Task: structure prediction
Amino acid sequence: ELWNNFVVEEKPIVFPLVDEEDETCNEELTYDNKRATELIKDDSSQSEIKTTQSIKEQQRTLRSLRNKSKQVMEEQGINVLYLSFGFLRWIEADSSKQEFDAPLVLVPVSLTWESISAPFVLSLHEDEIVLNPTITYKLEHDFGIILPEYTGEDTLETYLKAVEELVKN
Result:
């Protein structure tokens, strides 16, 4: 749902504002099974995201992300802010018990904030959607697995199922 709303329909994600008078803003949101985010639709057809952070903590995190990504863009001219879809969990060898996780599909985003009284807005950046180059390299050189290119012609679910079939062993 998040992929369809954000990537396919290009609807920005609007984060909730801190309301100093509203005590509920300071309560932490909890979710089951490590679910970090859930897309919520409102009547204006924009989207809001909820996280496991309180709204105040979320605002601090967003401000920090925006400032750091803006600084890199100004100094180096590259966007470093991505929204990740699909994660690959693997172990290095059959005898290993340590699991590693890596994002697969990286969607370039921009995080904007018009004023102190406006919400943070996450929207698509004009760069191309890419596969995580680090995990692509690792899979090819360490395991001999070449990930299929993500072209955007198939749905995300179809692509992730193809990757799952390729790496299941």
About this structure: The helical segments are 2-8, 55-76, 133-143, 156-167. DSSP finds four helices and seven strands in the chain. The CA atoms of residues 42 and 48 lie 8 Å apart.
